[in-house]
Amino acid sequence: MALRFIDGFGGGDSTVLKWDVTSAGYFINNGGSPRVAGGYYGLVSSSVLYKTIPAANLAIIGTGMNAGSGTVTYTSFYGDSGATQHITVLRNASTGLIEVRRGSTAGTLLATGSTTTGTNAWFYIEVSVTISATVGEVHVRLNGQSTDEVAFTGNTKNGGTNTTVDKVSIGNSGINGGYFADFYVLDNTGSANNTFLGDVTVRTLSPSGNGTYSQLTNSAGNSTNNYSYVNEHGYSGANYTGSVTTGLRDTYAIADLPSGVSSIYGLQVTGYMAKSDASAASAKLVLRSGGSLYYDTPRALTTSYQSYYALYESDPATSIPWSISGVNGLETGMEVA
């Protein structure tokens, strides 16, 4: 595994996030001016969204960024269980240039890019970071280019103990504005997805029809068209499917990928799940591909909705990278565990 997390910002909700916070961030659907037609984006309003990842000596972020009317928007890399903010890469509000700083947005300036990024305009930024007090590296690329906008070698360690990255963030703390889209984070621990992916799009595909299994009971008290109770953007606790019986499951047909998709680097199944009372309850995400079922780890549920996700860099039915037909033919859902 090298791909650690993706977000297309299609959840449309500001409280049940796939990130490590539950109240920061305000998410918009695809109205206004998305980065790509039919895409989604998020407004991180005076907040920072954090994501914990397995510790690795190299981490790469890719994200679409739009600074709105000129605010400072940025990404950061942390170590020591998120306690040490090592590197921040930001868009300078005055110059429009990319800056690399050790520490926070007010930290030591290490390098500055040469390309001006406009206000109220989307650009795609990728940042690769390794931590060291002597031979650390930061590489920044813009808009899918194969050459570096910034290439810094030197001290990237802002104190602390470890020289690994274990948390990343996007945001603009204390400043309104700043839009993000098509986010990914990966490391260099796997045989694939261990370097810059280029200017990529994260597509949010929602349930579009009943799948092979419709065993759960929906919030209307039946099992008819269960997919229509779980396909809204911006989850609704009033619409759900569920059961108290272990082993019962739903799988849903998923909307096809849009035309023009040529490569698929990974797939992330996301579910918003909760239990109805104080009794112990667990559930697991399920993916159906090639006629077989594949399960994520059972998750112990709470009485508050939480976001759960499982990443698949390849099709488990074939053990090779996803094909267009493989994604278009799969089903996803959940099973009571």
Structural features, described:
The protein is mostly beta strands and 337 residues long. Helices cover 1% and strands 43% of the residues. It contains 1 helix and 26 strands. The strands form 6 sheets. Strands 1, 2, 3, 5, 10, 11, 12 and 14 form an 8-stranded antiparallel sheet that branches. A 6-stranded antiparallel sheet has the order 4-13-6-7-8-9, with no helix packed on it. It is elongated and about 60 Å long. The model has no long low-confidence stretch (mean pLDDT 92).
Can you tell me the overall shape?
Answer: elongated
Query: Order of SSEs, N→C?
Result: EEEEEEEEEEEEEEEEEEEEEEEEEHE
Fraction of residues in helix? under 10%
Total strand count, please? 26
Q: Structural class of the helices, strands and pairings?
A: mainly beta
What's the helix count?
A: 1
| Uncertain stretches | none
Q: What's the Cα radius of gyration?
A: 20 Å
> Which percent range describes the beta-strand content?
35-45%
In angstroms, what separates the terminal alpha carbons?
25 Å
Mean pLDDT: 92
Major sheet: 8 strands, antiparallel
In a nutshell, what does this entry contain?
By secondary structure, this protein is mainly β.
